[in-house]
Design brief:
Two copies of one chain form a homodimer.
Chain A lengths: L9 H10 L9 E5 L12 E2 L9 E2 L3 E4 L13 E8 L14 E5 L11 E4 L3 E3 L4 E4 L9 E2 L10 E3 L7 H9 L4 E5 L3 E6 L4 E2 L10 E2 L2 H11 L3 E4 L7 H14 L2 E5 L4 H12 L4 E6 L3 E2 L5 E5 L2 E6 L3 H19 L10 E6 L3 E2 L5 E11 L2 E6 L7 H6 L2 E5 L5 E2 L4 E6 L2
Helix pairs in contact in A: 3-6, 4-5
C-alpha cells in the first residue's frame, strides 16, 4: 500500500469508494415533527391522503356564477343575475345556484354547487337590491382553483430522499402531516491525530499547535446533515489509533481520520485503517490539489476517509468526497447541486495537466458581474479559507485558467 | 392608505422600508461556544492574541539547514552537512544550528534557531553516520511556514457581522477562542390570519384549509438565522389582530402578518398595522409578481411586513424583503449572495414591463449545462414551490425572457 504510486483522478477514486460499499445504506429512519424537519432527508415517499385544496375555491373577490348565464355579456349589454346569498369564509355553503343566480364570494371561498366560474367584483355592477349586472362574459372554470388542483388525493407529493426545505414543511403541513419519517443523521466519527496537536482549553507549549480539523470538519459535517461523533485527539500512536478506529467502527456510520502531515504519520494512519477490516484501503493518493495524500477505504459496510493533516487540504477533500457519500447514504436520488455564483476571473491561474485543482477565491461585485480573485496563501493556512468566499475548480484537462475566463465559484457556506 | 394606488418597484420599496428604521438595530449580543456557532453572526471583530502558526514550521519532511551552506549544491557537487539532531513533533527544540550543520525535521516541526530553510528528504543522501549530502541548493525561507504567516498577533481576523461558516469555526479554534460573541437571533413573530384557516391537529371542516404560512415562513426565518416567535392563528377579527400585533411588538424584533386573500381582509390587516404606531404603513402595493398586495411598515423601531395570504406569494415576498432586513439587523456589512446556478431557459416566458417577476423553475442537467423549466401552476399552489428548485427573476425592464436565454436560478434551499 505504498503512497502515491498511483494517483487516481478524484472522480474515479470516488467511484471506486462508493462501489466498494453496500447500497442502500444501513442508515435507519426516525419520526420527526414536521416543523423541526428543516434540512432533514425524507425516509419514505409522502402520499397525500386528501386533495388540496379540499374544495374548489375562488381566486378572486366577486360573484360565483354559472358561466353560461354570462354568455355575450358586455358593459353595453350586461347579463342580469339574482344574488341568492353570500359564501362565508371558513364555512361550507349549502347554496345551489340555479340558472340566472349568483352568490357573493371572497377570495379563497368555497364554490357553491352548480357554479362553474367567478366574475370579478370590478366586472359587475349593482343593479337593484339582490340583483347585479355582469359586464363581462366568464368562461367555465374562470377564477376557480379546482378541488385537487394543487394535489390529488393519493398522489405522491414528495419523494423519499428529498432534503426538506421550508416549502416542503409548508406543503406537508398543508396536508395535515405534523410528523414525518426522516433518515437518521449519519454519525460521522472525526479522529484528529498528530503529536503536535493540543485540545481546546489546554495550554499550547513550544512546538505545539491547536487542533483545527476536529472543529472545521465537524461543522462541515453538521452543515451536510450529519451528526458529529467527536473522538479523542490522538498522538502518533498506532495502538491508540487502532483502538479509536475500532470504537468508531462499532459506534459510527462514517469514519474520518486526519493524519499528521509527515510521511511517517500518513503511513501509520494508512496501516491502522488497513487493519480495521476488509476491503481496507481502496485508494491511497488522489490527483487533486490540495489533498494528494487522501485515503479512501472501507471496513465492512463502513466507509473510512483518511485526510491530510493540513486544514485546507482536509477541508477541500472532505468537501469533495463526503457530500456524495452522505447523499447516497441518505437515499438522495437527485444529483448534488453545489450552490455557486458565475464570475469572471481576475488573474491567470496556472495548473498542472492531469490534476484537478481547487483554488480558494474571494469574490467582489464590479458593475453587473462578480469578479473572482484567488486568495493567495499556502494550502496549510486555515485563514486562507476564512478569507475565501468559495473555490473554483480547474479541471484535469486544463493547464490553467486565463484572466477574464468565466468561472463558477462554488460557495463555501 | 388605499391599496395599490402607487405600486412601487421592489427595490425602491425596500429602500423606503430600511430607511424608516433606526440603525444600528437593537439586536444584542450573546456568548456562544464556538463549536455551536455555525450560521450565527459575529457581534464583534475578532482579533488574534497570538500569531499563527505560533512558531516557524517546516512544510516538508527533510533537514533544517542554513541556506547559505547549500549554495551551489548539485548532485555532482553536493554540500556536506553534519546532522546534529532531530526536531521531535510537538516539542520545542533547543537546537541552534551552526554553519555546516543540519537537523532532521518532519512536516509541521519547529524550525531550530539559525536555520532558515528546509531541504526535502528526497534532495538529500545519507553520506556517513550523522552526515548528509545536500543535492540541491535551498533558498532562504524555502519550505518554511513563518511564524505569524497565517495570522499576525493583533491582526483583525474576522469582522463583526460575518456569518460563521465551518472554516471560521476552524480558524477561531486555531486561535484558542472556544467562545465567541454573536448577535442574538432576531425574534420574528409570524401571525397568520384568515377565517378559513385551521391549526395543525384540528379537523378540517367544510370551507376550511390548513394554515401553511406559519410553517413555511417559520422554516424560512429559521434558515435565515432568525428565531420564530409563533403566534396565534387568527380569524379576520380586527380586535384580536390588533391585540396580537401589540403583544408581538412588545416581545419580538420583526413582525410578519399574513393577511387573508380577499380585499377586505387585506384592508383589515393594513388598518390594524397602521394602528400599531408611527410611522405606520410605508408601502402598500409592490410591483412584483407574485406578491402585489405587500405591506411594508414600521412601528417605532420595529419593522412590520404584511404578506399576501397565498402561500407562494407570501414565500416569494418574504424571501425578497426579509433577508436584506435581517442582514442589516445582524450587522452584516457584506452584500447578500444568493446561491444560484447558471442555466439555460427551456421556453419563452412572457412578463409585464415595469413589473419584477419571480418564476419558480425546476432545473435538470443536459450535457454540460443546467436547463431551467418553469413550474406551471398558479401562484396559490404551495406544491408549486415544492416542485421548484429555484426561482428566476425577470427584471422590470424586460417584456419577458426568450427560450435559450442564459438565466440565473436562485436556489430555494
Amino acid at each position: 500500500m505504498p503512497e502515491f504510486l498511483h494517483l487516481l483522478p478524484p472522480e474515479q477514486a470516488l467511484s471506486i469508494w462508493l462501489e466498494a460499499l453496500p447500497w442502500p445504506s444501513s442508515i435507519g429512519a426516525e419520526t420527526c415533527a414536521t416543523v423541526d424537519a428543516l434540512g432533514r432527508y425524507l425516509a419514505e415517499d409522502v402520499v397525500a391522503n386528501d386533495p388540496l385544496p379540499p374544495f374548489s375555491r375562488s381566486t378572486v373577490d366577486g360573484y360565483a356564477v354559472r358561466a353560461a348565464d354570462t354568455y355575450g355579456a358586455t358593459p353595453g349589454l350586461p347579463a342580469y343575475l339574482e344574488v341568492v346569498g353570500e359564501v362565508r369564509m371558513g364555512e361550507g355553503t349549502s347554496l345551489h345556484l340555479k340558472t340566472g343566480q349568483a352568490a357573493l364570494i371572497h377570495t379563497g371561498g368555497m364554490i357553491p354547487e352548480h357554479a362553474d366560474a367567478v366574475v370579478m367584483l370590478e366586472d359587475t355592477q349593482q343593479a337593484r337590491s339582490r340583483q347585479i349586472e355582469v359586464l363581462k362574459a366568464a368562461a367555465s372554470g374562470e377564477n376557480i382553483l379546482q378541488r385537487g388542483e394543487d394535489v390529488q388525493a393519493g398522489a405522491q407529493v414528495v419523494q423519499a430522499g428529498t432534503r426538506i426545505r421550508a416549502q416542503e414543511i409548508g406543503g406537508l403541513m398543508a396536508l395535515g402531516l405534523a410528523e414525518v419519517s426522516v433518515k437518521q443523521k449519519p454519525r460521522v466519527a472525526i479522529i484528529s491525530t498528530g503529536d503536535e496537536l493540543v485540545a481546546p482549553g489546554q495550554p499550547v507549549g513550544p512546538g505545539q499547535v491547536r487542533d483545527v480539523n476536529s472543529y472545521a470538519l465537524g461543522a462541515l459535517v453538521d452543515r451536510m446533515g450529519g451528526r458529529i461523533s467527536r473522538r479523542r485527539l490522538l498522538g502518533d500512536d498506532r495502538r491508540a489509533l487502532e483502538e479509536e478506529l475500532r470504537e468508531a467502527h462499532a459506534a459510527d456510520d462514517i469514519i474520518v481520520v486526519t493524519a499528521g502531515s509527515s510521511v511517517s504519520e500518513r503511513d501509520l494512519t494508512a496501516n491502522a485503517i488497513q487493519e480495521l477490516g476488509e476491503p481496507g484501503v481502496l485508494v491511497h493518493g488522489v490527483h487533486i490539489k490540495p489533498g494528494k495524500p487522501t485515503i479512501l477505504a472501507a471496513a465492512g459496510i463502513k466507509p473510512v476517509l483518511g485526510l491530510p493533516g493540513n486544514p485546507v487540504s482536509a477541508f477541500v477533500v472532505a468537501g469533495y468526497f463526503l457530500p456524495p457519500l452522505m447523499r447516497r447514504m441518505l437515499g438522495v436520488t437527485e444529483q448534488g447541486r453545489t450552490p455557486s455564483i458565475p464570475a469572471r476571473l481576475a488573474v491567470n491561474i496556472a495548473s498542472e495537466t492531469g490534476r484537478e485543482d481547487f483554488v480558494p477565491v474571494r469574490i467582489r461585485q464590479e458593475a453587473d458581474e462578480w469578479v473572482a480573485e484567488p486568495v493567495y496563501g499556502r494550502s496549510n493556512l486555515i485563514f486562507t479559507l476564512v478569507r475565501a468566499d468559495g473555490v473554483i475548480r480547474i479541471p484535469p484537462s486544463a493547464t490553467g485558467l486565463e484572466k477574464d475566463a468565466r468561472v463558477t465559484v462554488m460557495l463555501l457556506q
